[in-house]
Amino acid sequence: MSAKSKASGWSIPGLSLTDWLSRLERLHPSTIELGLDRVRRVKDALGLDPTFPLIVVGGTNGKGSTCAYLEAILGAAGYKTGLYTSPHLLRYNERVRIAGQESTDAALVQAFEKIDAARGDISLTYFEFGTLGAMAQFVDASVDVAILEVGLGGRLDAVNVFDGEASIITSVDLDHMDYLGDTREQIGFEKAGIYRAGRPAICADPAPPTSLLDHARRIGADLRCVGRDFSAQREGDQWTYRGQAIVWPALPLPAMAGAFQLRNAAAALAALEAVRARLPVSEAAIRQGLAQARAAGRFQRIARAPEVILDVAHNPEAARALAATLREQPVAGRTLAVVGMLADKDAGGVFAALRGEIDAWWTCTPDSPRAQNAEALAVLLRAHAGRAPVSVQPDVNTALAEARSVAHEGDRILVFGSFYTVAAVLDHAATQQ
């Protein structure tokens, strides 16, 4: 490959998807560079102006689950859906789904070639390249609706070059503080950047930052807040959605575990209520979608006797939700935890949220250059999580094997802390089949 072809946007024929992903990691000098100018210029060069409606989903936690509800409900209603999410667990293909199916290697490569040919000398990050590639596939496939998950923040995230028919913010809490600010007010402003003037702006955070509310009002968004404009009320094994103009009663509980999932599901329904003139859905489709929606790594059970649960919770808000779910679903025996986290996460806050819920811990080092060392995690654990014993292991599957070796049939093993941690277990499990 010549130096000129490396630097420019000339497409390189014959590369596999693995080759392309490796190339994308090297194309831009930094992994993350927030800002819309470069990606908008390439978007315009490609003529990527979708005529189908987009639903944009941002927030600190709950994005993946909310996207899963939207995809499942709209699919059950008969729409051809496009779904773009990140990060992936095992395969990049997971990030792009059309009509419920992961994109193929060939379709991804074709999209990357198209982006590369159009960008000229404009440098794009891995995520920016992937965002444009996903939209190119949705346009080529003539989807009826696309659901786009924000990668980081909102205002300056690559997804924000596209205008949502409706936009959802699921929650606002402290994460990615190096990029978004170290207060909820700062982070709320960044996330509110996905809202659009005159269009439905869904907020599922029960105590939204003033900055988010002020920005929505300032631009004239149609702000709809949980607890004021829509709500989810559980009634035994059912729940009722109440919106501005619609009540959907006696709905099945979401298939994904956790009381917080009602809020995510309600956010999805609030968006669907808001866009019902363009994307009408039946109550039957809502029921089917709620029952079928799944997002990998969200309190995902992969084994029984003892149970093994996987969860990608990696910040204090997610850990509080995880602790609540553990209490909602008690087991006869102990709860043992395997944890691996990245160094830029608030591990102390995560461990404090789970204090008292875990009977024994195993720390590990995820397979990432950004990983927190298992020994350092153990120090934080002992400082924040009480007197439960802590064991240090080099990697997640060694730690899980150790936990399994001491677990009894009625115990539960929780593996959490990072997408990398969960992905390692899923990848290992796949190789054992």
Looking at this protein, list some descriptive labels:
alpha/beta; Protein-Tyrosine Phosphatase, Chain A; 2 domains; 17 strands; 40% helix; UDP-N-acetylmuramoyl-L-alanine:D-glutamate ligase; disordered N terminus; eight-stranded mixed β-sheet; globular; six-stranded mixed β-sheet
Q: Give unreliable regions as ranges.
A: 1-10
Give the C-alpha Rg.
Answer: 22 Å
Report strand order across the widest sheet.
4-3-2-5-1-6-7-8
Shape: globular
Count of spatially separate domains:
2
Which topology of the largest domain does CATH recognise?
Answer: UDP-N-acetylmuramoyl-L-alanine:D-glutamate ligase
Name of the CATH class of the largest domain: Alpha Beta
Structural class: alpha/beta
Share in β-strands: 15-25%
Number of strands: 17
Please tell me the overall pLDDT: 93
The major sheet is characterized as: 8 strands, mixed
Percentage of residues in helical conformation: 40-55%
Enumerate how many helices there are, as a single number.
16
User: CATH homologous superfamily of the largest domain - what is it?
Assistant: Mur-like, catalytic domain
What is the CA-CA span between the terminal residues? 39 Å
